Amino acid sequence: MKKASMISIAAYAPEHILTNHDLEKMVETSDDWITKRTGIKTRHIAKDEVTSDLGYKAAKLAIKRANLSIDDIDCIICATISPDYLCMPSTACRIADLLGIDDVMAFDISAACSGFIYLIEIAKSMVESGLKKNILIIGAEKLSSIVNWNDRTTCVLFGDGAGAAVISESKDENYIIDTHTSSDGSKGDLLITPGCGSKNPASNFVIENNLQFIHMKGNEVFKTAINTLTNDVLKILEKNKISSEKISLFVPHQANLRIINAVKDRLNLSDNQCVVTVDKFGNTSSASIPMALNYAYENNNLKNGDLLLLDAFGGGFTWGSALIKFGGK
């Protein structure tokens, strides 16, 4: 049976950095308040770049690190909730064009912060079925374009960036062991961008009521996220008969340091096992996990053969986890 492997990881963050002290000048907040409740100190903000630009820069590096050419890529999938365009063309198509890749399958998915794990599961299925050989997956977000910068409860949380990986057939023992993805649409209104879709089309009413921006009921999301994330990772570890001490790196979605620590403690993981970048990049939704993986990789903390546990929770609600032996060189 064919196995799928993550053979590279890469990321890109815009140059401009927005600090908590910068936000103190914009809304009624403080560095102390943001840090204590979220763990975030800075986030990167795209100025003259759009989501496809961010994704392209991460994708180009991911292909290079995989030792492949653009002609080897036969599918491109992008996870995003902040696409270049509302309907079409897809951000994946835009990234393909920027890369100079044509005549391949390219499409977007929308699974919010769980998007990258959804991508891994889709790519794994395609490779293992023999449908595709080298799939480029990208989580890319320009969340600054859908954040209300007058809303102090949400604007402090989000940042921009992109992460990318190549999923190919495994040539050794380093492969994607298992993935699990799920959802609960009944709680969708707790984390939502209510405007500019078919339910609330673009109008003066939408703009006047800020419906085009992210709306979140933070306390409810916080509680649900901790329980859901913990249960999900415990299930995937138990299913695969892997104990937490065997995990090389736990790479959770980077939304809130308190959530990360709560799940880490429930799993009895050490600080050295846990990758934390929320302080540097904030919540970058679908880009969060690949950006954290890339941070570990570029700091020599992610090596070929390392056993990874990924875990994410996002709007929808969606969630997912993955167990991976990293195949990158």
TrEMBL record:
Active site positions: 113, 253, 283
Chief localisation class: cytoplasm
PANTHER family, per database record: 3-OXOACYL-[ACYL-CARRIER-PROTEIN] SYNTHASE 3, BETA-KETOACYL-[ACYL-CARRIER-PROTEIN] SYNTHASE III
Family: Belongs to the thiolase-like superfamily. FabH family.
Molecular-function annotations in GO: 3-oxoacyl-[acyl-carrier-protein] synthase activity; beta-ketoacyl-acyl-carrier-protein synthase III activity
This protein's UniProt keywords: Acyltransferase, Cytoplasm, Fatty acid biosynthesis, Fatty acid metabolism, Lipid biosynthesis, Lipid metabolism, Multifunctional enzyme, Transferase
Function: Catalyzes the condensation reaction of fatty acid synthesis by the addition to an acyl acceptor of two carbons from malonyl-ACP. Catalyzes the first condensation reaction which initiates fatty acid synthesis and may therefore play a role in governing the total rate of fatty acid production. Possesses both acetoacetyl-ACP synthase and acetyl transacylase activities. Its substrate specificity determines the biosynthesis of branched-chain and/or straight-chain of fatty acids.
Domain named Beta-ketoacyl-[acyl-carrier-protein] synthase III N-terminal: residues: 107-185
Pfam family, one: ACP_syn_III
Top-level EC class as recorded in UniProt: transferase
Protein name as catalogued: Beta-ketoacyl-[acyl-carrier-protein] synthase III
Organism: Campylobacter ureolyticus ACS-301-V-Sch3b
Reaction equation(s) it catalyzes: malonyl-[ACP] + acetyl-CoA + H(+) = 3-oxobutanoyl-[ACP] + CO2 + CoA
Known pathway: Lipid metabolism; fatty acid biosynthesis
